[in-house]
Each structure stands twice: as C-alpha cells, then as structure tokens.
Amino acid sequence: MEEVDVPSYFTCPISLQIMRDPVILSSGITYERDAIERWLFSNNNRTCPLTKQPIGIEDIEPTPNHMLRRHIQSWCAANTSRGVERFPTPREPVYSTQAIIKILDSTKNPRTLVSSLRKLREMVTYSDRSKLCAENVGVPTVLVSIIDRSIGRGYDDEEEEESVSACDEALNILNSLQLSQESFHNLYIGNPNLIHLLVKVLEQSSSYQCRVYAIFLLKSIFMSISPLYMPAVEDKLYIEIVRVLRDGMSTTVTKAALRVLWELCPWGRNSIKATKAGAVGVLVDLLLDTGETKICEMIVIVLDKLCRCAEGREEIIRHGCGIAILSKKILRVSNLTSEKCVKILQSLVKYSPAPELLKEIAQLGVIDKLCLVLQMNCETKTKKIAKEILRLHSKTWKNSTCIHPKFLSSYPI
C-alpha cells in the first residue's frame, strides 16, 4: 500500500485516510462521514474545517458524494493486487431528520404518545448526530408542551398512569439531548413556563425518575440563563429543592440540587426565600453526614451565600451544630472548604456579634482553630479573614478561659 500513489482527492482532509463514505458540505468540500460528524457533533463545531465558513442546518445530514465514492471503490478494486483494501457500499444513517419529524407527528395522537416517545428516545440517544438533528427540528419545545399536558391534570387512574409515563419519557429525552448552555437559554426564552412546569413535576409527581430528571434540568437551566433573564422564582422551588436534599436521593442528585441553590442565591431575595424554606438547617445536617470533598465544598459555598442575609446567619446560629461543624471542617477537607467556613464565621461575628455567640465560639474552640489556620499552609485569603476575626473581638477572646494559652502567647489578641 505504501508504494501505491493514492489520488489526493480520495483522502479526507480531516483523517487523511481514503474515504469510504464521502459526504459533501454546503461549503463544497468533501469529507469522510465519520470524521466530519465527529467534528460537527462530538466537538460541537459549526464551521467547515477547511474553509472556516459557517455551516447551515442542512449540513446535519451532509449529502453523500456517490460519484466520488464509486470512483474510489473502482480504484480500490483495480489495485487489490497491490494491497489496497476493497470496501462495501456504506449504509445510510439509521435515523434521519425526516424520521424524527415523522415520530414527532405521531406524538399528537394521545393513544400512541408513550410508544412514540419511547421510539423518539431510542432515536435521539443513538448518536450525537441524532441529538443535534432532534434539537434542530424543535424536539425540545415539543417535549416541553408534552410535559405541560401530562403533569397534574387530574386524570382517572388509567389516564394518570399514561400521563406519568409520558412525562417521564419527555423528561428523559429532554435530559438525554444534552443541550448546550446556549440551547438551554434559548429554550427557556421560548418557553418561560418551563421552570414552573419542572417545579410542578417536583411537587406533584410520584415518580422518582421524573423528579430526578426535573432536578437535572433545573440545574442546566439555571447554569445557562443570563443574569439579565434570571426569573423571580416561586417559593415552591426552594421548598422542593430542600425536600430533595433532605431525602438524599443520590449523590449526583444532591450535587444538582446544591448547584441550583448555588446559581439562585446571589440574586434578589432568593437567599431569604431559600432560608425560609429551611435550606440552612438541611445544609448543616448534610454537612454533618457527608465526607465527600465536592459535596462539602458545594454546601459551604451555598451557606456562604445564604449568610449574606440576616435570616441565614440567624439560622446557622440557631442550629445546635452550625458553628461546631463549620469549625470542624476547617483544615480537614480542602482549602476551598476552609476558606468558605472561615468566611461564614466572619459574617457571623461581624454582623451578628451577640455576647452569647462570641462565648459559644470561644467554648467550641473556634479561636484555637483560627490560630491554627495562621500556622498552617493555608491560602493567603483564608489567613487574612482569620486575622480579621481575631481582631474584631480581641478583648473577648483574650479574656476567655476557653482559649489555649499557647495561642494567646503566640498571637496576642
């Protein structure tokens, strides 16, 4: 094969191998189907690799270059004696845009809705190409309308079972599409009731799987929405998120729920709403029970955001283990966890410095821990916050009998 002079136009510009299934883009360049589909779908590119021209929707299903393929096959057959491999005519893609559109039409019939959705799920999960085809023909919007029709309509028992199955399948497909942040943003702009629908799923659905899909979708939506479009979220969302955290459905679901709070709490009165829904108490309990680094980091990040409001600080102080667990996690999990725990303690002593709180902080060994922070190889920012806490109420700490003498001598406060 090394001695055979292969015509340059037989090779794919991406793979540099002889093309078995050449397809042509709207830019006029021919590529191997597998190579260009990896470029378009797996790598999420939207330009022609050679010309760098933007490609259109029609390039999701590039046109087969039958003439070039036959020419290549004839050339391979003529050079088999020289070690050139012959290859068969490639099969057409399993699922096309037309097939997906046909299935979408069948979802309009209530009798075949569930079976059509199952077939659609099989199609869109087949490959990255089929996912993009489904997105471009409007499958996400159709799925949102199906969820709207299926959730909480007060059907009889048989219809209720069908509606739950339809909602489950629609949520599953919407989650499986793995939409980009831009696509999720556009989906929300076109369907502003989407968040409300997902809250209804969390509130009313008896299906465990439906609730899981709803949490994952909410996480993706809030991570994608521009701050300019951040909605005024209803109180029920925080109640349901707290319920999910309390139920402890799974590690991945817990992380998704924490991410929802993470994205929401900085805006408007969301931190107050979350606090009123019981988020602080649940997060502290979760911090007591978990040892996983990522979850600990996410919890203290959310608690830090909640402590920016007086209601959040009050709930941490009121919780029997709030201050103790924050102190315990310092220097034990990660640098980020230590920083956030120290920052939360700073908010408490700076904005809620009741004598009872300061006494409790000293009794629980928090001041000793902060002095250790100054000795350890911690982030500079963490040490700076710890020094500020020690200085804020230095007279109180100095007169306390709960602080180890070696810290008082090493760090006169």
TrEMBL record:
It is an enzyme of class 2 (transferase). PANTHER family: U-BOX DOMAIN-CONTAINING PROTEIN (PTHR22849:SF11), WDSAM1 PROTEIN (PTHR22849). This is U-box domain-containing protein. Residues 5-82 form the U-box domain. It comes from the Eukaryota. Keywords: Transferase, Ubl conjugation pathway. Functions as an E3 ubiquitin ligase. InterPro entries: ARM-like, ARM-type_fold, ARM_PUB, PUB22/23/24-like, RING-Ubox_PUB, Ubox_domain, Znf_RING/FYVE/PHD. It catalyses: S-ubiquitinyl-[E2 ubiquitin-conjugating enzyme]-L-cysteine + [acceptor protein]-L-lysine = [E2 ubiquitin-conjugating enzyme]-L-cysteine + N(6)-ubiquitinyl-[acceptor protein]-L-lysine. GO terms for biological process: protein ubiquitination. Pathway: Protein modification; protein ubiquitination. It comes from Zostera marina. GO terms for molecular function: ubiquitin protein ligase activity. Its EC number is 2.3.2.27.
